[in-house]
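job 3f2a | input accepted
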Amino acid sequence: MRKIQLGQSDLHVTPVCLGTMTFGEQVGEADAHAILSRAVERGVNFLDTAEMYAVPARAETYGATETIIGNWFKANPGLRAKVVLATKVAGPSRGMPWVREGSGMTAADILASCEQSLRRLQTEVIDLYQIHWPERNVPMFGALYYDPAKERTQTSIHEQLEALGRLVKQGKIRHIGLSNETPYGLHEFVRLAQQHGLPRVATVQNPYCLINRSVENGLDESLHRLGVSLLAYSPLGFGLLTGKYDDSGLDGPATPRDARIGKFASVRAGRWGREDALAAARQYNQLAREHGLTPARMALAYCYTKWVVASTIIGVTSLAQLDEDLDAFGTTLPPELLAEIDKLRWRMRDLAA
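job 3f2a | predicted structure (353 res):
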């Protein structure tokens, strides 16, 4: 695979990134190590994780994914230098006191979380350190509207940037990124970095898939004009865009119980578990079949080839899924299919946003 520069940084990554949030919950350590090794064998040089993983988040599995990756690095000492490693510092608690107490995310929180991630990952430096979600009140994880009455900011963006800058100076992180961020937030991070000589954001990691193209509601222009790269997560809509739920539904007796939506009630309660999101996914899946493609191949090819996407984060639970996702790279969707996709989006918009 070719390498893509992330933002204005010196990081060059493959256009497919291995996401790891299933490691430690759905995927045991031995299988996770096999998936990591296969991904590298197939040319992937970009790994993404987070301190709060595995998902769904539980106190018992907090930090498990980073620990599994750290053990893989220890068992394969030559591989750390071959991959770009990204992880994330969690934002305010969101009902997870084992991750972060209270409603803030202070500079001290950022510094402490980074130290813990470095220990679990068994590495001296994190290549891309991302804020997992803003401390500010923003519409995310299924919320649609900004409500100024819910503002809770305790730590300024400037203070967060100063903490990240301290970590860069200490050589503990190389570059910074954001996740689940808005155009306003991105612009403020870039403005303040330029004004105060602090680290410049290289990436934004937001959901992007056929049933959630909310990035194209203004964030795409900001990314382009500011020279910041999009890392697209959930390209298969938590499995809705694979077709596996087309016949069974999301919570019926035939629902696949080894899949995330089938297995975890907390996932079914979120944006990916909406019946209207599944209804939209079914239409895209049928469109793929009509054009001789599997639903997963069409959905991934869509993300792989969009100008706004620098790297697509794939999450898998098996070697077979990994190979299927990687085999989809290089698929080109014909103009008439892209036009039909846009027609569906015009009618249904972003039902998993």
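job 3f2a | The chain has one domain: 4-348.
job 3f2a | closed
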